[in-house]
Amino acid sequence: MPGTRPKYNKQQTAIMEGEILYIISHSSEAITIDEMRAQSFTLANVSTQKIARILTKLIDMGMVIKAKSKSKNKMVYKSLATFIEESND
User: Fold this and answer.
1) Do 53 and 44 touch, CB atoms closer than 8 A?
2) Helix (H/G/I), strand (E/B), else coil: 45
3) Radius of gyration of the chain from its Cα atoms, rounded to whole angstroms
4) Alpha helices for 1-89 (secondary structure H)
5) d(CA 75, CA 85)
């Protein structure tokens, strides 16, 4: 549709991206999108689709990894740096 604007501007998206990275990097376990939203006031009202798009960007950049959790039956996300650090221990 011509004339429509994105719901979030670039600055808001960058803030959300930083918040997601912060939450993931400070989590010792892989977490779901719902768990991220529960930990952040900034992300609480953001749609799961928007968070998933940001996570896809972070995955493409090589900062986050994604896997399917059998116990939670959902996709979980973890910081690549945390994953490598745990692998070296």
Assistant:
1) no
2) coil
3) 14
4) 10-25, 33-39, 48-60, 80-88
5) 21
20 within 8 A of 44, measured Cβ to Cβ: no
Look-up of token digits 């940001």: 54
Phi-psi label, residue 26: left if phi above 0, alpha if psi -120 to 50, beta otherwise: alpha
Rounded distance between C-alpha atoms, residue 56 and residue 67, angstroms: 12
Residue 30, classed as helix, strand or coil, is coil
Distance CA 18, CA 28 (A): 18
- pLDDT (tens digit per residue) in 3-62: 688 888 999 999 999 999 999 999 988 999 999 999 999 999 999 999 999 999 999 999
